[in-house]
Design goal:
Keywords: Signal
Helix content: 10-25%
Protein name: SET domain-containing protein
Order of helices and strands: HEEEHEEEEHHEEHEEEEH
Pfam family, one: SET
InterPro entries: KMT5A, SET_dom, SET_dom_sf
Radius of gyration: 19 Å
GO molecular function: histone H4K20 methyltransferase activity
Length: about 210
């Protein structure tokens, strides 16, 4: 009976928001028929806000960050060539979108096959995971794969950012998740030579804790 009532609400309501513990929300869009989960809000430095979708970081910001190889285990990382102020917009997370877990799984199986059949040495393959560049933008319905974008290391993009635990000094970037976009900002002033990093979240490391690099 409860499920029937719930479906009836979806059919007549244009939209609704249901708050959940921890600042999350269930959001229903009556125009598209899509039910999403908005994740807990993040805190931006005072005076900053998420720009419209499609907005790019300034040339000064992009040119002020370089992508360098760190190690086989950690791969590449993004480093400030000069100081960057807190609240600087670093860009949106970009890549191929998947609108279902099934489509994502099919693509990741194909990627795993390509990795296994590649000419890369076994030590490098050991630290490559198909899901490394996957980001959910709505709690598990829509996914963005930044893998292809990350392979271009001449210009910085947010897919080059490595992990640092939230609340530590190394964690100097904040990720803002909204219904249709994921934006990144510096959460404090960055010094020249410092690596830019954000917290990937506990789900990313489940089953692969021994691969985590401090």
């Amino acid at each position: 009976m409860k499920s029937i009532i719930l479906l009836s609400l979806f059919s007549v309501a244009a939209a609704f928001n249901v708050p959940l513990p921890g600042g999350r929300e269930i959001v229903y869009n009556g125009d598209t028929g899509v039910l999403r989960i908005k994740l807990e809000p993040q805190t931006l430095p005072k005076g900053t806000e998420v720009p419209p979708i499609g907005m790019l970081p300034t040339d000064e910001t992009i040119n002020g960050i370089e992508v360098k190889h760190i190690s086989e285990k950690k791969g590449y990382g993004a480093f400030a060539k000069e100081p960057i102020e807190a609240g600087t917009f670093l860009g949106f997370y970009e890549g191929r979108r998947f609108d279902s877990r099934e489509k994502l799984d099919e693509a990741m199986q194909e990627r795993m096959k390509q990795i296994e059949e590649s000419d890369l040495d076994e030590e490098t393959k050991k630290y490559m995971f198909p899901m490394d560049y996957i980001m959910s933008i709505d709690g598990g319905m829509t996914f963005v794969d930044g893998f292809d974008r990350a392979q271009d290391r001449f210009y910085f993009c947010t897919a080059h950012l490595n992990h640092a635990d939230k609340g530590t000094e190394k964690c100097n970037v904040v990720r803002i998740l909204e219904e249709d976009r994921v934006a990144f900002f510096t959460s404090r002033d960055i010094t020249a030579g410092e690596e830019l990093q954000f917290d990937y979240g506990s789900n990313f490391w489940q089953g692969r804790e021994h691969h985590k690099v401090d």
